[in-house]
Amino acid sequence: MFEGGAIIDAAEHWERVIAHAQARQLKAFADLAELRRHPDGHYDDHTADELALALNISRVAANQRLELALTLTERLPATLAALEAGEIDLIRARALAVETYALTAEHATLVEARVLDRAKDQTAPQLRQAIRSAVLKVDPGGEQERHRRERQGRRVVLSPSEHGMSELWAYLPAHQASAVYATIHQCARRAITPGDERTADQRRADALVDLVLGTSTGPAAQVNVTVSASSLLGLTQEPGELAGYGPIPAEVAREIAGDATWRRLLTDPASGTLLDYGRTRYRPPAALAEFVRARDMTCTFPGCRRAADRCELDHEIPYPDGPTSAANLDPKCPHHHQARHRPDWHYERFDNGDHLWITPAGRHYSVHSQPIAEKVPIPVVGNTDEPDLPPF
User: DSSP per residue over 156-176, as a string?
Assistant: First the structure.
C-alpha cells in the first residue's frame, strides 16, 4: 500500500551514520587540541592551522569546528554523546553550543538536561526555541542582563553588493524587529493589484522603501505576545512568548504587553490555558479565527513554525459536513494545507487537540497539543492563600 518506506529507512540510517562520524571527528579535533595544550593550560593558537591544512578548509572554518569540539567535550558531553549515537545531527548539537555559550558551565549543563531528551524529535529551529526557553528558566536574571547588554548594540548596517544592489539590515530587539517585519508584510499584501507579478519578497522590499521614504502610510501590524498573569503582575519571572520568535525575558514581555500597539495573550499560570486576548487599534479578524490562531500559534504540521497569523484555517472535516468551530479548525501554512488535501497524505485532529500526519510512505508523525504557556507555581503574597490576580 505504501511506497518508499525502505528508501526513507536508508536515508535515516545514513543520517545517523553521518552524525556518528561527525561526533568522532569532533573528538579527534578535541584530542589534537589537548595534545597541543601548553603547560599553562592554554590551547595552542596554531592547532586550527594544522586541521585546516589536513582537511583543505579555511582556518576560520577549522577554528569554528575546533571551538565546537571543545565546547561539546568540556561543557556539553551529553550532547556529544547524543550526536555520536545518531540521535541528533550536527546542526542541533551546534545550536546547543551556541545558545548556551554565554552561560556558566553549571547553567549550560542544566539547560542541556532540560532539552536534550526531546531534541531528537525536534527540528533545529524548534530546539533553539526550547533552549532559549530553558535559558530563561535556568538563569532569568542573567538573560535579562544579557538582553539589556545586547540591546545597546542595536544598529542598522548598509553593505554594498554587486550589480548596483546593496544590503540593508538591522539588529534590533526581537519584539521591535517582529513588529517592523509584520508591518512591512502587511503593507506588501495591501499593495497587491490585479496583474501584479511581483513575488512576495519583491513586494516586501518595495513596501519597505515606500514606508521609509514616506510614500506609504501603512498601519502598524498586530503582533502577539503571550504572558502569564502572574508574570504580568511581576509575581514570577516566567518568560513570555513572542509570536514568530519564541521565548523572551519576563521583563521584556511586561514592557511590551502594556503597549497598546500589541495584542497580549493572557494565560492562566496554573494551567497555561488562554484566559483572554486583547485587541489593538488594528481591526482583528473574526473572533473564532482569532481564537484558533491564538490557541495553536503555528501551523500544525510537524516541525513547521509558520506563525498562525500567516496561515490558512483548515476544516478537518470539510465544510459543510464539518462545522465551522474551534474544534474543527486549525491553522496550516499554504504549503502544508495543500499536502493535507492530497490523497496520499492523511491528517487527523483528535478531541484533545493532538494532530496525526501519515506520509505517503506510511510514516506516522504526531503533534501533541501544548498550552500556550507552561504551568508555573504561583507564589503566596502576604498572608493570603492566593495571589491578588485580577478577576478574569
Answer: EEEEE-STT-EEEEEE--HHH
Whether the predicted pLDDT of 250 surpasses 50: yes
Residue 326 lies in a domain: no
pLDDT over 90 at 124, yes or no: yes
> Rounded distance, CA 82 to CA 91, Å?
12
Q: What is the DSSP string of 224-274?
A: EEEEEHHHHTTS----EEETTTEEE-HHHHHHHHT-TTSEEEEE-TTT--E
Residue at 80: amino acid letter: L
Is the pTM value of this prediction over 0.85? no
CB 349 within 8 A of CB 330: yes
40-63 per-residue burial string, b: 16 or more CB within 10 A, e: under 16: eeebeeebbeebbeeeeeeeeebb
* b/e burial code for range 87-124 (CB count within 10 A of at least 16 → b): bbbbebbbbbbebbeebeeebbbbbbebbbeebeebeb
Give residue 111's domain range.
13-138
- Shared domain for 131 and 91, answered yes or no, is yes
